[in-house]
Amino acid sequence: MRSRFSAYATNQYDYVLNTYTREKQEGLTIESLKQSADGALWFALQITPPSVQEATLDTVEFTAFYFENKSLFQLHETSNFLIEDNQWRYHDGTLHDDCGKIKYGRNLPCLCGSNKKFKQCCATKLR
User: Fold this and answer.
1) pTM for the whole thing?
2) Is residue 29 predicted with pLDDT exceeding 90?
3) Nearest-angstrom CA–CA distance, 63 and 95
4) Which of 18, 26, 66, 113 has the most crowded CB, counting CB atoms within 10 A?
5) pLDDT (tens digit per residue) in 6-23
């Protein structure tokens, strides 16, 4: 999951495409991935540790934060992965209801985990 986030953050859409399952790759192109992420500046990823009862090796819950049009957004998803060719590959996911534009206090700790205030860290990317 972290490598896919990093690939989106650095516009490495060939990597993103290659980390989908073969079934899902058939309907995607590097250009379509690029267009879907166009204008988004991905800057923070939080992976939710599973509880003992929910723990499965093929499911990851995460929240990714990004800026778009000078606004803050979050993508909260539970992702499903499959093993193909001895590698974990993203298959699909379920979006949570809290996806979309969010408000976050300027004086709260930054979402990236830097221990700085948001206004002194990642919020400067909005300027």
Assistant:
1) 0.89
2) yes
3) 10
4) 66
5) 999 999 999 999 999 999
The two three-digit tokens of residue 43, written as one number: 């800057």
Name the nearest CA neighbour of 126 among 62, 58, 43.
Answer: 43
Give me the pLDDT at residue 54, please.
Answer: 56
CA gap 20, 89 in Å, rounded:
5
Residue among 40, 45, 20, 39 at smallest CA distance from 30: 20
Look at residue 60 and give its three-state secondary structure.
Answer: strand
Q: How far apart are CA 89 and CA 66, in angstroms?
A: 23
Task: Using alpha carbons, list the distances in angstroms from residue 62 to 44, 87, 103, 104.
Answer: 11, 20, 18, 18
